[in-house]
Write a structure and sequence with these properties.
transferase; acyltransferase; about 400 residues; 18 strands; Phospholipid/glycerol acyltransferase domain-containing protein; alpha/beta; Glycerol-3-phosphate (1)-acyltransferase; Plipid/glycerol_acylTrfase
Length: about 400
């Protein structure tokens, strides 16, 4: 199959029926509005993005098979590539200009496909919609086809990106047609972007304040250290540790519990009530922090390092330890070999799933896979971006 030839509806329904049985064991779906009913393709679906199931959540309630725009590194897995190609998925290199993606989206329009896009560029970590990539508005202007926005509510509480396993609970979906094709011609790109931002914005915990739903799991806080790596009590980095519903600092023993409603509870001082509030403070703290060479040298993790040239499958280059200084990341192998990459050469830095850090140098894809399941790829990308920004300021002032 391909973009031109979509999967038959009976194949789509057969596959989704099996998936629906699994999802309904852990999730209760409430569709509050569905403007895709009786809407004929081609049209564009845009949605907020919170977990791996999002494309399936959406396609469960859309009659046509959807050609989703998906991260290009996924296509470098041979088995996954076959599945994605069968569905007509369109590869996109995250956070890099990619004209081939535009050409393939236009091809999908020409063949009357429903096109699916997550304009945040990746799954958010805390239940709050990330900024919408501006080029999405340009694409909408170019396509001139109906646009349906989807809000997925409860997806973060059901399966947060940092978490392990699903939490049983309710997900609400709203399919809202925001434009017909003829509406778009008179709109500016800026207006389109503003409307997309408004239509897709969702704050999970603000929504939860009104709903009060419970999301059941025996390990509801498990792996929260993948997102929250700074202790608000002693301010150390990398000492947080989760266990079932408990989240504790190994350095000072500060402790909180995460409830089934998604809020923190503590017998100690309660600095924050939600992971989002903690993450926002953590970002502000990092921005104000002066990271010395000695401090950075203490931050290290065991990793596997991969490389892919010319869009071929990834190959393991070495296994070792990752460290960083104020200008570079360094990867050291047990055999004494090493590789270093300057921040200014690293492009398209992003996280795949929760434990793989991808970046490009020129057109070569490199992947750092953290082998410790508690390791925070999110922490590493925040540190790299923080140090990269500091370096840029230093160069501008010199």
């Amino acid at each position: 199959m391909s973009i031109e030839k979509k999967p038959s509806k009976w194949v789509k329904h057969l596959l989704l029926s099996a998936i629906r049985l699994h999802l309904h064991r852990i999730t209760t779906f409430h569709v509050t509005q569905n403007d895709t009913k009786d809407l004929k393709p081609p049209y564009l679906i845009v949605s907020n993005h919170v977990n791996n199931w999002d494309p399936l959540y959406i396609n469960l309630f859309v009659d046509e098979p959807i050609a989703f725009v998906a991260g290009e590194p996924l296509f470098r897995n041979p088995l996954l590539k076959k599945i994605l190609n069968y569905t007509g998925a369109i590869p996109k290199t995250k956070f890099k200009n990619d004209t081939s993606t535009i050409r393939n989206v236009l091809k999908a329009k020409q063949h009357n496909r429903v096109i699916g896009l997550f304009p945040e560029g990746g799954r958010n970590w805390d239940g709050v919609t990330e900024p919408i990539i501006y080029s999405t508005a340009k694409l909408v202007k170019l396509l001139k086809i109906p646009v349906v926005s989807v809000q997925i509510k409860g997806g973060y509480l059901t399966h947060p990106r940092w978490g392990d396993g699903d939490r049983k609970g309710i997900i609400e979906l709203t399919f809202n047609k925001i434009w017909d094709g003829e509406d778009i011609a008179d709109l500016t790109v800026s207006t389109i972007h503003d409307q997309l931002t408004k239509s897709l914005h969702h704050d999970e915990m603000n929504w939860q304040k009104k709903k009060g739903y419970s999301y059941h799991s025996k390990r509801i806080a498990h792996y929260l250290e993948r997102l929250l790596f700074t202790c608000p009590s002693c301010h150390t980095i990398g000492n947080m540790r989760s266990d079932h519903d408990t989240f504790q600092c190994d350095n000072c023993n500060y402790q909180v519990q995460l409830t089934e409603q998604g809020y923190f509870h503590s017998e100690d001082a309660l600095y924050f009530t939600t992971p989002f509030e903690w993450k926002e403070w953590q970002q502000q703290h990092l921005d104000q922090l002066s990271l010395t060479t000695d401090t950075l040298s203490e931050i290290q993790e065991q990793i596997e390092f991969y490389q892919s040239i010319d869009q071929k499958p990834l190959k393991k280059v070495m296994k070792g330890t990752i460290r960083l200084d104020n200008e570079q990341i360094h990867i050291y192998s047990a055999d004494g070999s090493s590789k270093s990459f300057s921040f200014e050469d690293m492009e398209g830095i992003n996280i795949l799933f929760h434990h793989k850090l991808d970046f490009f140098v020129n057109d070569t894809l490199f992947r750092i896979t953290f082998t410790n399941p508690r390791a925070s790829a999110y922490m590493w990308i925040q540190l790299i971006q923080h140090l990269k920004a500091k370096l840029a300021i230093k160069e501008q002032s010199s």
